[in-house]
């Protein structure tokens, strides 16, 4: 059986609006192993990411891709946008920051219940990778939200800017 994955935020004393994300794998016996620690990230990003892992239906991400992304050091930036189509959501989230130098991206896609997961995820990831450099490490988390009707939310934690 795969171990459960948990992300927790740890406050930095030197920076008021930034925290570190720590990725843990939780084993069947309840023991935890620290897998990765991020560069300082905005608190709003940490809150959104940690919330995904606290839900009762918690996501089961690929721990290896999450480790690679979180271990990309440098400046970080957070972008979030809700739209009716993948192109608009990605373009608006991407326009908030210059991502041409990004070396990592944690992409969170929240879908309305009526959207096609395969088509939507494929479009979002193609758009993100089209705008970013070839060496971009990325990890993907996908979830659903019943409150969204015919919309999707794209959130990206850019790392290594």
Q: Please, what is the average pLDDT?
A: 84
Low-pLDDT sequence parts: none
Residues in helix, %:
25-40%
Name the beta content range. 35-45%
- For the report, how would you describe the main beta sheet? 4 strands, antiparallel
Strand and helix layout:
Elements lengths: L3 E8 L6 E9 L5 E6 L3 E2 H12 L8 H8 L5 E8 L2 H10 L8 E8 L5 H15 L5 E8 L7 E8 L2
Please tell me about this protein's structure.
With 161 residues, the chain is α+β, with helices and mostly antiparallel strands. The protein is 28% helix and 35% strand. The protein has four helices and eight strands, in the order ββββααβαβαββ. It has helices spanning 43-54, 63-70, 86-95, 117-131, and strands at 4-11, 18-26, 32-37, 41-42, 76-83, 104-111, 137-144, 152-159. Strands 1, 2, 3 and 4 form a four-stranded antiparallel beta sheet that branches. Strands 5-8-6-7 form a four-stranded mixed beta sheet, with helices on both faces. Helix 3 (86-95) packs parallel to helix 4 (117-131). The longest helix has 15 residues, at 117-131. The chain is globular, with a radius of gyration of 15 Å. The mean pLDDT is 84.
